[in-house]
Design brief:
about 350 residues, alpha/beta, seven-stranded mixed β-sheet, four-stranded antiparallel β-sheet, 15 strands, about 25% helix, about 25% strand, globular
Amino acid sequence: MKRLFPEITAAFLLLTLSLCSSCFAQTQTSPALKVDVKSVMLPVTVRDKHGNAVQDLTVDDFSLTDEGQPQRIDYFSHDTNLTLTLGLLVDTSMSQRDVLAEERTASERFLDQMLTDPNNKDQAFVIHFDHEVELLEDLTADKQKLRDALEHVGSPQLASPSNPDDSKAAHRGGGTMLYDAIYLASNELMSKQPGRKAVIVLTDGVDRGSKETLNSAIEAAQRANTAVYAIYFKGEEAASNGYPGMGGGHRHVGMGGGWPGGGGGGYPGGGQRPESQPRVDGKKILQQLCSETGGSMYEAKKQKVDDDYTAIAGELRSQYILAFTPDKSVAPGYRKLALTTKKKDMSVQTRAGYYAGE
């Protein structure tokens, strides 16, 4: 039985991540450190000039700045056994119906590969989104429950080419609430979890009908210390009337959806965007979502979703975890971070910034 997300309350918006000391396993290069609840955590992937993950760095190899000011790295770990929380967000809109079977199979194999903690501390959840956002399975370490949830992704209610007049299917195909899905997953589920966190989104990157914007979805993921990874399936964005930051290009009147109060969004006053407005590039949207939260985007090729999942698994296993404590005098608001290595010919992938004093 599918369960809709409950209404967001103010309490959820005030939740902050409490980093427990168990989340940061000590390495031989870092002393015992006490974790401050106001610390900012950074999942970090480092690659050499050939694109291979670099896994032999120490805390002394990194340099961090906050709005250009050098910062001391308080915590450092390269322990691949840290608690892992994963979210799978699957686009079940009409533009993605032809790839759902492949996505389900690959997603099941990915979860089997990643949820390996013998004490069941690693957990995952499954969400699907189209004209609404639905939580198919809440956080669990039970792989069978997750498999069952994935079997329900897109199976009972999507339109089929042989039945284009089905009203329920047409209703379901009328939206793609990508931004709402990321916002809700980050705000309601990830914000309360410790350790390593990532959501994997399978979509064409085009949003239609979200209440949230691209920027608010990114902000929610950053606040929850959650990296967004995307597997991009080229869909029907060429025919989309939406554009970044405005949800979709049509106002879906009376469509309700997973977000309480309806999934309005769209161009002010409803209707189509002016023809002079640029069309959405779903690939660029996903690249922005991933780069600003510390994740990566992979482009799905025919029968290659497993390869994309393997690459994501490799990133998550090779991550360093760094954290620092911002100065108490820092004004509230968004602040840009820059993390580099002192060694040459290496690229660093991590979140672009954080929200201070809130």
